[in-house]
Amino acid sequence: MKTFQSLHPYDQSVIAEYPVMDAQTLEHRLERASLAFEHWRTRSIEERSDLLKRVAAVLRANSEEYARIITLEMGKILSESRAEVEKCAMCCDFYAENAVKYIRDEVLTDNKPADLQRGSVVFEPLGVIFAIMPWNFPFWQVFRFAAPSLMAGNVALLKHAPNVVGCAWAIEKIFAEAGAPEGVFQSLVVDVDVVERIIAYEAVQGVTLTGSEYAGSSVAALAGKHIKRTVLELGGSDPLIVLADADVAAAARVAVQSRMQNAGQSCIASKRFLVDAAVHDEFVHLLEQHIAALKQGNPLESSTTTAPMARRDLAEKLHAQVHATHKAGGKMLVGGSHDSVRDGANFKPVLLVDVPQDSPAFREETFGPVAAVVRVSGEEEAMRLANTTQYGLGASVWTRDTERGERLARRINAGAVFVNGLVKSTPQLPFGGIKKSGYGRELSYFGMKEFMNVKTVYIYS
Q1: Fold of 238-426
Q2: pTM of the model as a whole
Q3: What is the set of active-site residues?
Q4: How far apart are CA 151 and CA 445, in angstroms?
């Protein structure tokens, strides 16, 4: 029997092994999801809201337990894991309180056709939503799809990353403990060879994936083959632009927070720092100081401020990207030595400067604690380089002139641009990318309606 092995990233100790579901078990779970949808879709918005409120309560009541599971399997420091659990609870509360206004009927009142007595747009659930989720935020990625999907009246199937199966089972148990009807939320411990089987299943009407460009392309092709709706949130190489009039100290502090939290393993982390020549040296000096103050170690210990990467193979890939950038002409001010990858994937943070545009640190997504600094001559060069990327997920602009910041934000090709602050996802606003960062939106009312039938009801006069 094939199993998925869960390893603690810090020391590579085995946490658990999980058997992969056989064909019969998978079929049973698919059938259960299909039956659950027929009942769940008829539940009132108040009943769905009550479930999410109970889920939020379970998350908060057991936050230490769930935080420890996240840290053991994925490797992030405990304070970040606790914050992730709370963000999931907050997301559940948000949709429990706001979904009703997002999906209420819209009645046509202006410019009505002559033969129309009443015209409405109603929003109805689609069916079973299949989610393929990554390991970097093993709770948050799940809840940001599940909360709006369940409030819409859909039901959820989760295929989690093989290294965080413990998180997947914990989340299924959270919904069960909160009183979710059988089959409304289920985890599938399956390998990639059955993904098409799941997508092709008749009751599955939507697929959402957060992951690599390759995974997104593959799943989109399968979904297209079977005519299923998709949302893809893929990679990013987000620019952080520091203009000459910026608060350099604040920009540097947030830049390090953005790049180094979660051990740099975040799609919307700032990865390319485009810094005006007038403040470049000051900014770099501050980055060096902040990075030097980080303490790497066991993520279960409260004194640790930066965690190991989730897997050793990922750390080795990042190590290769850093050294290829160095070979191309980039300079390593911090880290980057040949012992960057140690047992347990404890990748030492790296600061690269004078990064060439044809190097991996500029062209590719560097998914780990590596900051790449590029000196620019002003805002026009900053704009050009910000948009010189195949990705388009997030970006940030730093300037004391907020009107200037907004003007430049509108010129950046990305799904979200933040001025003078940390790029982040929040339930109140849509989240997603363009170009090879994917398509569709999660969160807010936009995300909720991605997997709903927008139906016209036309009553003749």
Answers
A1: Aldehyde Dehydrogenase; Chain A, domain 2 (3.40.309)
A2: 0.97
A3: 233, 267
A4: 11
Average pLDDT over residues 74-99: 98
3-state secondary structure of 311: coil
- Please give the Cα distance from 48 to 103 (Å, whole number): 13
CA-to-CA distance for 442 and 450, rounded, in angstroms? Answer: 8
How long is the chain?
A: 461
What tokens appear for 76 in the block? 């992030």
Quick one: tokens of 363? Answer: 């062209």
d(CA 12, CA 31): 37
Report d(CA 51, CA 53) in Å as an integer.
5
pLDDT score at 269: 96
Per-domain residue ranges for the chain?
A: 3-234+436-460, 238-426
Report which residue type is found at 104: R
Largest CA distance in the chain: 77
**Token output for 268:** 């919307």
The answer to whether the Cα torsion of 385, 387, 388, 391 is positive or negative is positive
Q: Does domain 3-234+436-460 have CATH number 3.40.605.10?
A: yes
What is the four-CA torsion angle of 187, 189, 193, 199, rounded to 10 degrees? -10
Over the stretch 312-357, which tens digit does the pLDDT of each residue have? 999 999 999 999 999 999 999 998 775 666 667 899 999 999 999 9
Q: How many CB atoms lie within 10 A of CB 184?
A: 23
User: How distant is the alpha carbon of residue 61 from its chain centre?
Assistant: 24
**What pLDDT does residue 340 have?**
62
